[in-house]
Amino acid sequence: MKIAIIQYPGTNCEYETAEAAKSCGLEAEIFRWNRSPKELAKFDGFIISGGFSYQDRIRAGVIAAKKPIILEIAERGDMGAPVLGICNGCQILIESGMVPGTKQEIEMALAENRRQWPGFICEWVYLKVSSAISPFFSQFSQGEVFPIPVNHQQGRFTTKDQGLLDTLKDNEQIALQYCTDDGRIEESANPNGSLYNLAGLTNPKGNILALMPHPERCTFLYQMPSDSSSWGKKKREAFGMPKKMLEPAPGAKIFLGMKGF
Q1: What is the full per-residue pLDDT of the chain (261 aa) written as tens digits?
Q2: Which of 95, 107, 214, 218 is flagged as catalytic?
Q3: The pTM of the whole model exceeds 0.85
Q4: Is 24 noted as a catalytic residue in this protein?
Q5: Cα(201)–Cα(65) distance, rounded to whole angstroms?
Q6: In terms of residue numbers, what domain contains 8?
Q7: CATH number of the domain residue 210 falls in
Q8: 246 and 223 in contact (C-beta within 8 Å)?
Q9: Distance between CA atoms of 155 and 253, rounded to whole angstroms?
Q10: Minimal CA–CA distance to 49: which of 76, 22, 19, 11?
């Protein structure tokens, strides 16, 4: 599967995302925003990686979401191609209306963080797989809990549509929620005040995933924090063994799921 990793002015996670994707068997190419959108026809899927596209002017993701390249990606997404937006990529997908995708309009926003860390967050959190119906989660079990880093300032999923949350629940679009290390969905585990502890959403078809945390930063065992539950134990046991340190960690499952489309 050949994947285009979109690079905007201000993107800063494209190379590590490409390495993570390649480690999972994907053929990844970094694709600059100002190339002809028609060149995307040779790709099977798309990743919009993290960073600060256009310096987050106006609000995060809004300028990038209006560029011609997104129209082409949205069209391919409508045809079933896998699209993954990570952090700033998540913000771009929300601003484009591709996710949640229940209407032909922008339905949500990613607002300034509240609660635990107002301002910029750079921390490890735990996520729970709340819906595994999307192929992106084919490598996970329903209810699985895993640690992952977050790095954002505008990561709070919110909406003015009072009925949207019920729609997302009914459609099983709520893929990932912030949780405690033992899987409880509690306010104390919500780092940014996100509605319903939301961390990742799909479109109704499940082929487009908007994800605020960074799976490319927990793709290999060596990236995992040494004090994080069972993953920390595995890392400590692998000290001094470089090959074992390169074994896959939970973030790899996202890219492996993408490979399965």
Answers
A1: 999 999 999 999 999 999 999 999 999 999 999 999 999 999 999 999 999 999 989 999 999 999 999 999 999 999 999 999 999 999 999 999 999 999 888 999 999 998 666 789 999 999 999 999 999 999 999 999 999 999 999 999 999 998 999 999 999 999 999 999 999 999 999 999 999 999 999 999 999 999 999 999 999 999 999 987 789 999 999 999 999 999 999 999 999 999 989
A2: 214
A3: yes
A4: no
A5: 17
A6: 2-259
A7: 3.40.50.880
A8: no
A9: 22
A10: 11
d(CA 11, CA 7): 6
Structure tokens at 203: 């479109």
| Cβ-based burial of 160 (10 A; exposed 0-12, middle 13-18, buried ≥19) | exposed
Q: Is 152 a catalytic residue?
A: no
Q: Tokens 């990743």 identify what position?
A: 47
Provide the number of structural domains found in the chain. Answer: 1
Candidate list 24, 87, 90, 179, residue with the active-site label: 87
